[in-house]
Design goal:
Largest sheet of chain A: 8 strands, mixed
Oligomer: homodimer
Shape of chain A: globular
CATH superfamily of chain A: 2,3-Dihydroxybiphenyl 1,2-Dioxygenase, domain 1
Number of helices of chain A: 3
Mean pLDDT of chain A: 96
CATH topology of chain A: 2,3-Dihydroxybiphenyl 1,2-Dioxygenase, domain 1
Structural class of chain A: alpha+beta
Distance between the termini of chain A: 19 Å
Number of strands of chain A: 8
Strand order of the largest sheet of chain A: 2-3-4-1-5-8-7-6
Order of helices and strands of chain A: EHEEEHEHEEE
């Protein structure tokens, strides 16, 4: 099961209201949706560029993972998400190869996708997500 | 001039020889080329996933920008590259909008592309690259 494309790139920002104009007015992309993901304590803004989305992430609480990331590393690229098919089988496959999982099974993420994260300790520092659009 | 797609994602690693097997054996991607970019003091390994390449970056000298990045932040996502058309005009356009450029004009990068970087201070912490494949 090989990833088909980069589904999205998650970018941690302090404030969507100041970051969105950069992506729109400077890069020329269009924010097509803002969505709150309550269990991740983030508000997200989406932009499509080719096959891939840019997903800006703003913390909605001080204990949000995104708030902690910014505190430690500053604003910047937070995670990388691969589109896969058969997400639960793929998770099992990588776990059997010694990869540490954050999510043992897929759960619902933004945009109605099934998602799961791999731990960056196992993936050379890259917080890595698998995403699947199930019908 | 709107970017057409994510050309590549640059990922800083300490050692290509240990990181490549993760991308190949765990994620299922195929390393199709290793290339040294002397003026950036890096060796790069490329993987294609949909429209986008993963570009692993290993420093070839202690004063390589990639070595400094790892020293400061650890291994992880280093930069984000957008495919654009008319790269020099695009650079001028973003500079006029107040973006700080690292490269005032495009120069040759890996894979024969014309490339230029924007400063992360201007781009909400994301080291941002424009790339153009000119014939």
């Amino acid at each position: 099961m090989i990833p088909t494309h980069i589904e999205h790139i998650g970018i941690a920002v302090k404030d969507l209201a100041t970051a969105i104009p950069y992506y729109e007015d400077v890069l020329g992309l269009k924010c097509y949706k803002i969505e709150e993901v309550a269990d991740q304590k983030v508000r997200t803004a989406f932009f499509q560029v080719g096959q891939t989305k840019i997903e800006l992430l703003e913390a909605t609480a001080p204990d949000s993972p995104v708030a902690k990331f910014i505190e430690k590393k500053g604003e910047g690229i937070h995670h990388l998400a691969f589109a896969v098919q058969g997400i639960d089988e793929k998770l099992q496959e990588v776990a059997e190869k010694g990869i540490q999982l954050i999510d043992q099974k897929a759960r619902k993420g933004a945009e109605g996708l099934d998602i799961a994260f791999l731990h960056p300790k196992s993936t050379f520092g890259v917080l890595t997500e698998f995403c699947e659009k199930r019908i």
